[in-house]
Amino acid sequence: MFTNVALRTVLKSSAGLLRESGSAASVKMWTCSSALLSGLSVTCGCFTVPPPVRYYARAAKKTKMGPESQLSDLPPTMMKMDYLAVPLAQTLATDDLVKRLLSLELASHSEKLQLKKEQLIAKVQRDENDRTSVEVQVAILTARIRNYQEHLQKHHKDKANKRRMLMAIDQRKKLLKHLRLVRYDAFEKVCEQLGITYTFPPEYYRRTTRRWLAKKAFCIKVFKEVQKQKAEQRLKMKQGLASTNTEPDKKNAEKTQ
Question: What is the pLDDT at residue 56?
């Protein structure tokens, strides 16, 4: 009986001590967390907690500047293509508002591209009325290809325009190849004036794979076997012809004897 009472008192006293220690630890942790939020170094228990590091906003990344556009050399004060040959437009261009409307400052991209095409054509055309020669076609395709390249740098997922650009590049390659074979001096002039680097196509376009290599080795083996059989047949035919030619010679020799 006495032992049971003693055990109960011991357990009650230990539970009280645990409650007091738990409340003190919670108060201590709360003070540590509040001090950390305020930015001070606090000693919690047996170690020192450093103040939190403040991560400030990073500097904005500089946007990479792409290659210069082919339309950048067109001055904004230049007249549009439709009004270059109109004398009345030159007289009306004295007003600032009319001048801006008739110049490239408020022109659309297609109007600027048309003027750029005319500038490239003027560099390579044979005479003033030349509009259908190979050199003029190469100049038009060059302006179009560069326009596609600038567009695809901003919209790299535009598959339709990428396909049109590749078709235009193939067509220009064919024209340059023909011009190089027919008139080499004109070919050099076109490449120099338009800034084109002509690269020779590879001798073979097919991509090598394991299946293609195995098929090629098998075809070579079959070809060699067929050539070997044909050589044996030719040798047999020669031996047969030689034997047929020797038989009449033997008969003639017997008759003479």
Answer: 62
